[in-house]
Amino acid sequence: MAYFSVNGKKVYYETHGEGKPLILLNGIMMSTKSWTIFKETFSHQNRLILVDFLDQGQSDKVFEPYTQELQVEVVKGLIEELGYEKVNLLGISYGGEVALQFIVKYEHLVDRLVLFNTTYRTSPWLKDIGDAWNLSRGDAMDYYLTTIPVIYSPSFYNRNRAWMEARKKLLTDTVFSDKDFMDSMVRLTVSAENHDVREELKGIRTKTLIVSSEHDFVTPKEEQQELHRLLENSDYVLLPDTGHGSMYEQPALFTALTLGYVNAKDLSMSVL
To answer: Where does the AB hydrolase-1 domain lie (predicted)?
Structure first.
């Protein structure tokens, strides 16, 4: 557990295990604590690196407006802090967007990239979803009902009632009732409004795994399919009967796909 600085702000990170470096980039509501159940497996043969973006978790707040370019510099600063020439990146949702912007600017620092539930742009659909989140911020239950149910597939949400009710109580009683957290969520959401790298991705050669969920209502699978088309050196997987929160709905597949892709000795095998 340690800190480094970016633009005078403290950024929290932690490392676990040894081996090929793998940095996990959080979704918008996540923090380093969100990866607790994955730490042991992800650090078994890799050096697992967790980081809180600015305005997340134990990193500093940013009270002036910013874009995701600031978070790109957080990732760059982290790699410099750890002294790596190349790393592997896993990004989910917001973290995947930052990862895409990162390879556009610093492709030479990335070996392999894994993206779950990630879009190459903030579409009008996604922009309006973000606006709805921010408009509901004044009431914890309103915010929960606006943001959380659509993150999961209907089958998962309905099947795991006890877990979802416990999560509702935790989030509405504490997290979504915390003004500082909600102010950060608004800033994080706004920071992604202008995300669009469709032109910049042309010519990117980083070996990339793109994973969609069949029932992703936040970043629909069509967005990842287009991303697969844009990234000429990418592979594509669709998770059936899964929602936007794929890491929670399909933890075994999330782990196996990531570690298999990152640690495979050769991803260019051919029988021809």
So the answer is: 20-250
Got the DSSP string for 96-164? HHHHHHHHHHHGGGEEEEEEES--SB--HHHHHHHHHHHHTTTSHHHHHHHHSGGGS-HHHHHH-HHHH
CA–CA gap between residue 54 and residue 183 (Å, rounded):
13
Q: How many other CB atoms are found less than 10 A from the CB of residue 179?
A: 8
Shortest CA distance to 178 belongs to which of 31, 70, 13, 48?
Answer: 31
Q: What is the pLDDT of residues 9-46, one digit of tens each?
A: 999 999 999 999 999 999 999 999 999 999 999 999 99
Structure tokens at 79: 């790699």
- At residue 271 the predicted structure's pLDDT band, cuts being 50, 70 and 90, is low
Query: Going by C-beta distance under 8 Å and a sequence separation of 6 or more, which residues neighbour residue 71?
Result: 53, 54, 98, 191
Whole-prediction pTM = 0.96
Bridge partners of 234? Answer: 208
Mean pLDDT (whole number) for 165-172: 97
Res. 266 pLDDT band, cuts 50 70 90: confident
What residues contact residue 138 under an 8 Å CB cut-off, 6+ apart? Answer: none
As beta bridge partners, residue 219 has: none
Structural domains in the chain? 2-121+197-263 (3.40.50.1820)
Tokens of 69: 């370019």
Cα separation, 120 vs 133, in Å, equals 20
Q: Considering the chain, what percentage of its residues have pLDDT values greater than 70?
A: 99
